Amino acid sequence: MTTSPAPLDRTLADWQQASASELIQHILQRYHERHRQQLPELVRLARRVEEVHADRPDCPRGLADHLEGMHRELEGHMQKEEQILFRLIGSGMSPVGLPPVTVMRLEHEDHVQALARMVELANGLSTPEGACNTWQTLMAGLRTLHDDLTQHIALENNVLFEGRNAPEGQGSAG
User: Fold this and answer.
1) What domain range includes position 34?
2) Structural domain count of the chain
3) Distance separating alpha carbons of residues 62 and 66, to the nearest angstrom
4) How many angstroms separate the Cα of 149 from the Cα of each of 19, 36, 60?
5) Is 10 exposed, middle or buried (0-12, 13-18, 19+ CB in 10 A)?
6) Under DSSP, is residue 21 helix (H, G, I), strand (E, B) or coil?
7) Domain contains 118
8) Is residue 112 part of a domain?
9) Rounded Cα–Cα distance for residues 107 and 152 (Å)
10) Burial code of 36-74, b = ≥16 C-beta within 10 A, e = fewer?
């Protein structure tokens, strides 16, 4: 993978003390930018593994297509957050009860299901014995994506969308 390891995140409790603006900036830089780097590279690696190792029974057939679908869905989701929801929250609106939050939570459930399918296609994310460097890199990248997207969703669902971190100088509504 061409991306460097991410710095350790603060805990969810730590982020509850941050302002909404600070949290949104963190989400954009730590997760949105990273997912935009991760997924195209993982698609490329998966496609290569599927082509070269198609004769192996443990080959992750269909993984590249699944990752392409995840990339499209996640990109659309992140654009909606960036163009609509994050702007509303950043302007001081409480996320509690906002219709876009309901949509984002539903899409998060879809992303969790997509991650589960990714794990299934990739044989539990375990690197098979005798795997080439490309396959090893793919599996390491999938594990990182799984962890990153899981943390990303938890941070939004459990902190940002709960309205506990109002913009500086404002109390959270509701």
Assistant:
1) 18-162
2) 1
3) 6
4) 22, 12, 20
5) middle
6) helix
7) yes
8) yes
9) 13
10) eebbebbbebbbbbbeebeeeeebbbebbebbbebbeeb
The per-residue pLDDT for range 128-161, each reduced to its tens digit, is 999 999 999 999 999 999 999 999 999 999 999 9
**CA 153, 157, 162 angle in degrees (round to 5)?**
155
| 3: in domain | no
Nearest to 87 by CA among 153, 13, 174, 28: 28
User: In this structure, how many other beta carbons lie within 10 angstroms of the beta carbon of residue 168?
Assistant: 11
Q: Could you tell me the pTM of the whole model?
A: 0.86
- Tell me the two tokens of residue 119: 């794990």
**What does DSSP assign to residue 91?**
T
- Confirm whether 111 is domain-assigned: yes
Dihedrals phi, psi of 82, to nearest 5 degrees = -65, -40
